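Hi team,

As requested, here is the filled-out complex form for the zinc ion run. I kept the field names the same as last time so the parser does not choke. Let me know if anything looks off before we queue the next batch.

— J.
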Amino acid sequence: MTERARLTKIGWEEDLAIETSEAPLAEPSGNQVLVEVEACGVCFRDCIDRAGRFKFIQTPITPGHEAVGRVIAVGPNVTDWSIGDRVASTHRDYCGQCEPCKRESGSLCQGAAGVLGLMIDGGYASHLLAPERCFYAMPDGIPAAEAAVLHCTFGTAYRGLARFGGVEAGQQVLVTGANGGVGSAAVQVASRLGATVTAVTRDESHRAYLTGLGAEHVIVDAGDRFHKQLSAGPVNLVMDCVGPPTFNSALRSLRPGGRIIVVGNVVEERASVNLGFIVTRGLQIIGSSGATRADMKAVLDLHAKKPFSIPIQEQLELAQADRAQRMVQAGGLHGRLVLVPSAQ
Ligand SMILES: [Zn+2]
Ligand SMILES: [Zn+2]
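And here is what came back:
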């Protein structure tokens, strides 16, 4: 039996449907692989997808871009994987030929159009049929729930901090939304790379948690005044996981020549920016999303040396997909939700 969740109508009025089928498994064609899904993370981006904020979403569609599982069939043109390989998904397919792909930025690929959960069916399913480049290698020892969410949290944090931020040992790094999925990963990655980390959160109750993850300083702030509370002075690098509510205070936290890596945009409002401040202080604003296979190898190497804390709040049956998305949309969770298919 196969099982999958379906988003048939944009928005929150209708629940996600759960479909089961006794039909034979899909046969991969071309460069597709068929993956038996162990687990799939429920990401805030899934809620953004459902709300229709990406106009190119194609419905009906199976949501989910955070799947992990085992390859059980390969198409005739597949070169990267064999039956039995354990793999986890990135956000999307890439062509390997276009200019961003050649610069190792598959997340900006202009040649391949397959974004999981938006343009091709994603991982809220017992089986995921997708192009082989949607996946990276996942070692056997990592539990399914943690393996599922690693790309979108630690991969995003690593790529932003290391590849675009150029973070070095001894630098000062500030992370906004530090208790969230990417934020808590960024605190850990930055401190593992030798930076001194300041974590910004809205809630005093997160202080001990963030200190435990490696934050040297924790600032509790609504989002617009934390730059006035930097006990060690302005920082080299900010990873902004929130967006408009924190963006200006994040800019004002930077030293001259500093960089802000923007990975989050959790509200629909736009940020208003004093451009003169950016010009005169020589600041750099860099957007980043997802991570490449090379980034994920670096993340997995760091994890193997000393395991990251990957917070999982709850594992739910796939049939609970709608409830899980509504929990993520409501916010206030202390870790990720992961869906586990019951049918195999
Ligand atoms: Zn995600
Ligand atoms: Zn490409």
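Two things worth flagging: Residues 153-287 form a domain with the Quinone Oxidoreductase; Chain A, domain 1 fold (CATH 3.90.180.10). The first strand starts at residue 2 and ends at 6.

Thanks,
J.
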